[in-house]
């Protein structure tokens, strides 16, 4: 039944609505007081970057916490524009020989023009991530309100708003359940009959609102088009309101609750997206089922299930850098003063906020975290809210393995499986090559052709970089069954480069051509080049990991030999005339257009790779340090995040911490702790969490390196639950800048070496066993 005009359903104070909600939560289900892992504020959010994010991986909301009017901006992770498409350009193979000839002749601008004309994807733009719109609750005038507080408790994934008005204390508690797949809000007051509001929707989409009963309202619509064609997605956001006491009625496009003791709001959202080539889903059936199931349970049961699921992941890691009285201030005030005040607990909050955000926007079965993670208020998000895979998507997942969130990589790994399918078509159509390729962006429909412009999109190693995450999942988890599953993807990525690498006439090395060093202009007025350092480093890792996987799986012996032989023909890392690590195969760095460019692509070999280390390649490490010094510390949010990780790999604790303070400062962190690119990009949040992890513990080359970049700002502290490669869990305690105790647990009995400064100690732990180690009389010993 559809209600277009006001229609009233009277509910007596004693009516339980057992058919819908067996019980409204009892007092003992009310969440406890907040803690140091809580973002909190003394006023509602005015701007989107002041609102607080909730998410269950698939469904997201930004809670504003208004008094007169509450706004919840909504997202569902498959609501992008467009429809399935394949933009690979069939003119590519014919154009490639001339493009390469121009590059090797030094005619880079001519090569760029030919790429723009003959080698870009069609269409040249990918689709944007889009908002559903907003769910609004209108309460009336906000005058006489006092004792206001809104907060987000990271330990509970719970938003709470409280205030006092006309002698009544009002409370709103909101969470998005990863178990029941709905948003749940409870509205309550400390006096009976005081809960009244109108609930409706606002959306910029092509949509309509339908009232299905005095308890149920639905927003339905269609996604935006792309390249002159209509979108293929239908979306639905369904809300059911269940009040205890009072009256429920309908208005024009709204639900009305009057004089209730409390109320529960359930919101579900879905689209008809099933896969990048299948849009046969039924959004209505999904939301009806989710709402019906959730509304048959009490708030207490829903909250308990949500809390258990969240804490099972979030509580794996704890961190303490110390605390000062500044930590008692509201979060926005702490951020505003962070550059001048001593607030080590803010860094710990930021660290855990990064983990919280990844839990909230990337769970098994969902889409991966995009440029905005999960949260976006626009139809045309900044940079489309896509998956930018020349750094940003990869940075999103840097904290996953070391901070004990391995299952959250499942959406990323699944996306790589999918782009290996579309990327195989692109490789064949555009390069006449085997295997698969992805350039610098992809989207919901898994497009893999070069896009945007030749200057930005002519970069064939995006998919190869993503393969590092597939390998890392194995390196941390050591599951041979998983390795067998991903090996064909690694092999396909390697096959593409075996077919497309060409010999540089000047040096004799094998290079990528055409390519770029993202997204930097060299001295010849373009980015187009052959064999940039980053490409060589990424392909070097890809070949090594593919060969290692084949060796472990005892397969493809001849292919393994071919890959390793080609790896030896790649351009090596080189040191330029200023002592810097060269960004290009030629020494152009000191004549580049932007000496402080945000990308530090050629330092991939230092981090996230470990081809360059202070111990094994000290000359290259010194050159990488020189490059960082030349680039400078201040940049966009994500670029600062990358620099934190790089300086930590160099063991420079004080420099690393000074850059971390820039990230935490008001120019690069919004009041809600979102990364201020600006505008908002979530990768800086994840880069910051990863960088702090690297300051405390690093693992590569069968080593676990303890406190490699500990700053004097954290003289005493602890971190528990970090993960090292090979299945190790690491708990660290330190005081007076000195390790007190490290406890190592081994899941698989693998070999490793503990490293603390100049100390090295081989680990001999059996599978499932643990041991503690510390400094005694100047030696690192087992305790």
From TrEMBL:
<dbReference type="GO" id="GO:0004560">
    <property type="term" value="F:alpha-L-fucosidase activity"/>
</dbReference>
<dbReference type="Pfam" id="PF22124">
    <property type="entry name" value="Glyco_hydro_95_cat"/>
</dbReference>
<feature type="domain" description="Glycosyl hydrolase family 95 catalytic">
    <location>
        <begin position="299"/>
        <end position="696"/>
    </location>
</feature>
<dbReference type="GO" id="GO:0005975">
    <property type="term" value="P:carbohydrate metabolic process"/>
</dbReference>
<feature type="domain" description="Alpha fucosidase A-like C-terminal">
    <location>
        <begin position="698"/>
        <end position="758"/>
    </location>
</feature>
<dbReference type="Pfam" id="PF14498">
    <property type="entry name" value="Glyco_hyd_65N_2"/>
</dbReference>
<dbReference type="InterPro" id="IPR016518">
    <property type="entry name" value="Alpha-L-fucosidase"/>
</dbReference>
<protein>
    <submittedName>
        <fullName>Alpha-L-fucosidase</fullName>
        <ecNumber>3.2.1.51</ecNumber>
    </submittedName>
</protein>
<feature type="domain" description="Glycosyl hydrolase family 95 N-terminal">
    <location>
        <begin position="39"/>
        <end position="275"/>
    </location>
</feature>
<dbReference type="InterPro" id="IPR049053">
    <property type="entry name" value="AFCA-like_C"/>
</dbReference>
<dbReference type="InterPro" id="IPR006311">
    <property type="entry name" value="TAT_signal"/>
</dbReference>
<keyword id="KW-0378">Hydrolase</keyword>
<dbReference type="InterPro" id="IPR008928">
    <property type="entry name" value="6-hairpin_glycosidase_sf"/>
</dbReference>
<dbReference type="InterPro" id="IPR054363">
    <property type="entry name" value="GH95_cat"/>
</dbReference>
<dbReference type="InterPro" id="IPR012341">
    <property type="entry name" value="6hp_glycosidase-like_sf"/>
</dbReference>
<keyword id="KW-0326">Glycosidase</keyword>
<dbReference type="InterPro" id="IPR027414">
    <property type="entry name" value="GH95_N_dom"/>
</dbReference>
<keyword id="KW-0732">Signal</keyword>
<feature type="signal peptide">
    <location>
        <begin position="1"/>
        <end position="26"/>
    </location>
</feature>
<dbReference type="Pfam" id="PF21307">
    <property type="entry name" value="Glyco_hydro_95_C"/>
</dbReference>
């Amino acid at each position: 039944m559809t209600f277009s005009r006001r229609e009233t359903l009277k509910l007596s104070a004693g009516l339980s609505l057992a058919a819908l909600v067996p019980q409204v939560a009892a007092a003992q289900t009310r969440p406890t007081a907040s803690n140091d892992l809580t973002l909190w504020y003394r006023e509602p959010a005015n701007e989107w970057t002041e609102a607080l994010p909730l998410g269950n991986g698939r469904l997201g909301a930004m809670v504003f916490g208004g008094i007169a009017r509450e706004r919840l901006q909504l997202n569902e992770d498959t609501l992008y524009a467009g429809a399935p498409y394949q933009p690979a350009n069939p003119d590519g193979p014919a154009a490639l020989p001339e493009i390469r000839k121009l590059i090797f002749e030094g005619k880079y601008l001519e090569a760029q023009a030919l790429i723009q004309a003959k080698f870009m994807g069609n269409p040249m733009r990918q689709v944007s991530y889009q908002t559903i719109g907003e769910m609004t609750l209108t309460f009336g005038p906000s005058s006489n309100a006092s004792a206001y507080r809104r907060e987000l408790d990271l330990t509970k994934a719970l938003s709470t708003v409280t205030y006092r008005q006309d002698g009544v204390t009002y409370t709103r508690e909101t969470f998005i359940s990863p178990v029941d797949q709905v948003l749940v809000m409870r509205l309550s007051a400390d006096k009976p009959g005081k809960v009244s509001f109108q609930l409706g929707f606002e959306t910029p989409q092509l949509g309509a609102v339908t009232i299905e009963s005095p308890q149920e309202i639905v927003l339905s619509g269609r996604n935006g088009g792309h390249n002159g064609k209509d979108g293929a997605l239908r979306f639905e956001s369904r809300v059911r309101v269940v009040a205890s006491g009072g009256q429920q009625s309908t208005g024009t496009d709204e639900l009305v609750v009057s004089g209730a003791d409390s109320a529960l709001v359930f919101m579900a959202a879905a689209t008809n997206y099933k896969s990048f080539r299948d849009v046969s889903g039924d959004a209505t059936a999904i939301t009806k089922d989710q709402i019906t199931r959730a509304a048959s349970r009490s708030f207490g049961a829903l909250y308990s299930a949500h809390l258990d699921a969240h804490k099972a992941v979030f509580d794996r890691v704890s961190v303490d850098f110390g605390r000062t009285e500044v930590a008692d201030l509201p979060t926005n005030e702490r951020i505003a003063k962070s550059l001048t005040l001593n607030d080590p607990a803010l860094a710990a909050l930021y660290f855990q906020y990064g983990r919280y955000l990844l839990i909230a926007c990337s769970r098994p079965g969902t889409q991966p975290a995009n440029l905005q993670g999960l949260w976006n208020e626009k139809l045309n998000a900044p940079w489309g809210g896509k998956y930018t895979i020349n750094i940003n998507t990869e940075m999103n997942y840097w904290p996953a393995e070391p901070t004990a969130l391995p299952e959250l990589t499942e959406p990323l790994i699944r996306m790589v499986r999918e782009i290996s399918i579309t990327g195989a078509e692109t490789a064949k159509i555009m390069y006449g090559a085997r295997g698969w390729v992805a350039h610098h962006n992809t989207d919901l429909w898994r497009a893999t052709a070069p896009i945007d412009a030749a200057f930005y999109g002519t970069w064939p190693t995006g998919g190869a970089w993503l393969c590092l995450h597939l390998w890392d999942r194995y390196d941390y988890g050591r599951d041979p069954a998983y390795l067998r599953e991903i090996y064909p993807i690694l092999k396909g990525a390697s096959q593409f480069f075996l077919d497309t690498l060409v010999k540089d006439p000047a040096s004799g090395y094998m290079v990528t051509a055409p390519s770029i060093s993202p997204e930097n202009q060299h001295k010849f007025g373009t980015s187009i080049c052959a064999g940039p350092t980053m490409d060589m480093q990424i392909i070097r890792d890809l070949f090594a990991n593919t060969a290692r996987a084949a060796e472990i799986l005892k397969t493809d012996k001849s292919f393994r030999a071919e890959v390793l032989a080609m790896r030896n023909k790649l351009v090596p890392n080189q040191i330029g005339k200023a002592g810097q690590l060269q960004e290009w195969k030629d020494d152009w760095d000191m004549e580049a257009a932007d000496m402080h460019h945000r990308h530090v692509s050629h330092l991939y070999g230092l981090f996230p790779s470990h081809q360059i280390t202070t111990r094994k390649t000290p000359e290259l490490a010194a050159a990488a340090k020189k490059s960082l010094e030349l680039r400078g510390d201040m940049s966009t949010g994500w670029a600062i995040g990358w620099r934190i990780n790089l300086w930590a790999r160099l063991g420079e604790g004080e420099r690393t911490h000074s850059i971390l303070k820039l990230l935490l400062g008001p120019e690069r962190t919004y009041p809600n702790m979102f990364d201020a690119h600006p505008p908002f990009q979530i990768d800086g949040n994840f880069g910051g969490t990863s960088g702090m992890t690297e300051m405390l513990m690093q693992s590569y080359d069968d080593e676990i390196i303890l406190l490699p970049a500990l700053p004097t700002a954290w003289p005493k502290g602890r971190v528990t639950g970090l993960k090292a490669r090979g299945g190790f869990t690491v708990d660290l305690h330190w005081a007076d800048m000195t390790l007190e105790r490290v406890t190592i647990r081994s899941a698989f009995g693998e070999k490793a070496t503990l490293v603390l400064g100049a100390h090295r100690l081989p680990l001999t732990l059996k599978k499932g066993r643990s041991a503690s180690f510390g400094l005694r009389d100047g030696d690192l010993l087992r305790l």
